[in-house]
Amino acid sequence: MKYLKLGVSLYLPCTRHDLLALANGERHAEARSLIFCTEDAVRDDELERSIRNLAAVLPMLAPRPTLRFIRVRGPEVLRRALALPGIERIDGFVLPKITRPKLRSYLDLLEGMPPFELMPTIETIDAFDPAEMIALRSLLCEPAVRPRILSLRIGGNDLLALLGVRRSPERTIYQTALGPLVAQLAGYFRPHGFNLTAPVFEGLRHPEVLASEVDLDLAHGLFGKTAVHPEQINVIEAMYSVSSEDLEMAQRIVAAEGPAVFRMHDTMCEKATHATWARIILERAQIYGVRGRDPA
To answer: Which CATH code is given to the segment(s) 2-240?
Structure first.
């Protein structure tokens, strides 16, 4: 469950003059994953400068526990990125606006390359087609593809743009037309072992709405979220910590000597159906801590 280490991701446009300092944790060191962006965060006329900046930064990346990815603009930018000195210092790539043909193009470029991890982003009109999502899942499940997939990402803003709307910062994504779609995507991919990261929350003035949205992300089985500003990190990670009651129930569920079914904290616990949840809770507790305690 390496995806649990993604935590909050910060997108960093590759045009930033301080890209190296950010990448090496000299600022915003609390971010658990960074995504160097050459796509929507970069204007068309700035693409070449962003690639030159990335080329200068990669050889100077210091070893850190932070997960670092490049969000490529398309297959051609992936081809160029793979040829850059120092590319082996990143963990993998975010593949935007994924479709089955585009994913095939990316996979062809990665054949024979180091085992970079991939995060394809579901954010095209295909997301609204159940048959296309099932076909995409079949491709992702192929033996040569599945080991590379760290997580799938849900591109909320692009999907909302297809509907011609922008959500209010006073509403969670689940209070928009995308709410049912997020639930469907969870149903298509989560039972097959694919994590999905949750759509970004754009509002900075309503941390209580952000916290409510993260709670609903977790209720849908989604883990990992992009922050639009570092001040969102603590709000999100506070929700990723676990309650002491959940931790106690999870510990007893996985205990070999425990009963098959038992009552704890006025909740029915069943080993057969709650074991996966329990393992996730135990790992989240190790990474993000227990509410009221410091993380490990």
So the answer is: 3.20.20.60
